[in-house]
Amino acid sequence: MNIDNVYPKCKGKPIVPTKEAATEIMQCGLDMDDIAEILEKGFDCSTSRRKKGTFEQGLRKGSKLIKAVAVEKECMFLLIHVGKISFPKGLTKHKEGEKCWTKNR
């Protein structure tokens, strides 16, 4: 089976969710196109170190931060986690090249 035409792409590779990630997508009221947008246009919002090839991207939607964690494989991105959290008060939108948790001053 060719997965290229079934899943949306990020950086030319298909995004394939794990079973748990697919459940989390539905619980957050999202779809795979939303996930592709987060991975393409989101910013690095990792709060801890991750294994090599694993990255965490976030995108602010109103007062919520939607996070997606994916592992880059040879021929695809394996989506392992999706979450929606309230954007913490006192924090601002990130600036290019910074982590997402920037304190207001």
Description:
With 105 residues, the protein is of the alpha+beta class. The protein has a single domain (9-88), classed as YaeB-like fold (2-Layer Sandwich). The chain contains 2 helices and 8 strands. Strands 1-2-6-5-4-3 form a 6-stranded mixed sheet. The protein is globular and about 45 Å long. The model has no long low-confidence stretch (mean pLDDT 82).
List the helices and strands and how they pair.
Blueprint: E1 9-10, E2 13-17, H1 19-27, H2 32-41, E3 43-44, E4 54-61, E5 64-72, E6 77-86, E7 91-92, E8 102-103
Parallel strand pairs: 2-6
Antiparallel strand pairs: 1-2, 3-4, 4-5, 5-6, 7-8
Strands of the biggest beta sheet: in what spatial order?
A: 1-2-6-5-4-3
CA-to-CA gap between the ends? 53 Å
Q: What is the mean pLDDT?
A: 82
Strand content: 35-45%
What coarse outline follows from CA principal-axis ratios?
A: globular
Largest sheet: 6 strands, mixed
Strand count: 8
Bin the helical content: 10-25%
Low-pLDDT parts are none
**Topology order in helix (H) and strand (E) letters:** EEHHEEEEEE
CATH topology-level fold name: YaeB-like fold
Number of domains: 1
Return the CATH architecture. 2-Layer Sandwich
The structure class reads: alpha+beta
> Helix count?
2
Question: How large, in whole angstroms, is the Cα Rg?
Answer: 14 Å
Name of the top-level CATH class: Alpha Beta
